[in-house]
# Entry
Amino acid sequence: MGNRRRSHAKRVWHALASSNEGVDNLQGYRNDLKIFGVDQSFTSFLSFTDAIAKGPIRPITVREVALPLDPAAFAEQAIALRDGLVAAGSIADTDKVMIRADEESEVESLFIAFTNALGERPEGVLAVHTNFQNEGEERSWKSGEVPDPSAYADGRHR
# Structure
């Protein structure tokens, strides 16, 4: 929202909140609190479990694993963990591993560590942070946004 619109919205909200007009007027001002009449014949529900069974969502397993804090050691151990899951048939070799970091500097450190640890292996590394410019080379790429995986035949970012 632009500064002028935000300022106007703030003034209106303050005026309504400090008046005696009550909460009903405040709800009328805020779109997200309006109730909409929707014909039930045009709605449907798909539970998370059903979505996994029907395929739009892949099943996931979240495991807490103690890994080292040093980026290079972390990358080596994470790759070994993934390799073990592939060897056991728990995941496909095309499945992705996603790792979240809090700070841009941590994303950068992990990007370098995973790029070095993977070496000449066919798997790639994609680091995403809003401050990154799109740059890199095959199997080692930084981007300011998550790329569309459908742009790649095998779903891997090159």
User: Anything to note?
Assistant: Strands lie at 125-128, 135-137, 140-143. The chain has two domains: 3-42, 63-151. The CA atoms of residues 16 and 24 lie 10 Å apart.
